[in-house]
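Researcher: Sequence recovery benchmark, item below. Answer with residues only.
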């Protein structure tokens, strides 16, 4: 009987993925691995016994091979998931690259709907629920317009919540430039 050689690193290592469900408006999971991933890396938000993911979080986890998303009992790939997300959130193609870039730089991002922003950004080493976010983040396409009134409103929201304003401009090549706006006392 032939014996198959297995690399020592493969022994005892099973691929763990979160099994999540796309329900039209959100993506959620109640799996043990989802809870483990939350405890370890702070992906998702608890809602009862389930963990609910932002579209950006789910896309990131699918791209990294840490999540499988199902819709009507059929597994979706990254492209199909991003198309379904786009139907609900027209800005996902601007938001996701910014989310991915910031997350890979070591920042934790959470939704910021109650602040009227896209994301709250926690500095490296800071945990949501334990410390406050340092920034509120607005991803924008380089081709979109931002009036002075829009800028002022975003800045006031950041100031009133004791956070700095961070604007991420995504250009046509996918490069991202960040602008931080902070209040100073003179």
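Model:
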């Amino acid at each position: 009987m032939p014996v198959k050689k297995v690399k020592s690193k493969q022994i005892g290592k099973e691929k763990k993925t979160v099994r999540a469900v796309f329900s039209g408006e959100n993506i959620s999971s109640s799996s043990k691995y989802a809870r483990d991933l939350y405890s370890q890396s702070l992906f998702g938000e608890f809602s009862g016994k389930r963990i609910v993911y932002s579209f950006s979080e789910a896309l990131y986890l699918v791209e990294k091979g840490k999540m499988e998303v199902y819709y009507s009992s059929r597994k979706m790939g990254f492209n199909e998931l991003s198309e379904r997300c786009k139907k609900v959130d027209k800005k996902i193609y601007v938001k996701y690259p910014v989310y991915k870039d910031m997350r890979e730089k070591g920042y934790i991002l959470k939704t910021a709907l109650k602040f009227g922003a896209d994301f709250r950004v926690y500095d490296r080493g800071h945990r949501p629920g334990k410390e406050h976010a340092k920034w509120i983040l607005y991803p924008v396409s380089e081709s979109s317009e931002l009036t002075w009134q829009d800028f002022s409103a975003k800045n006031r929201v950041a100031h009133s919540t004791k956070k700095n304003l961070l604007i991420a401009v995504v250009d046509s090549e996918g490069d991202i430039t960040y602008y931080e706006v902070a209040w100073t006392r003179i």
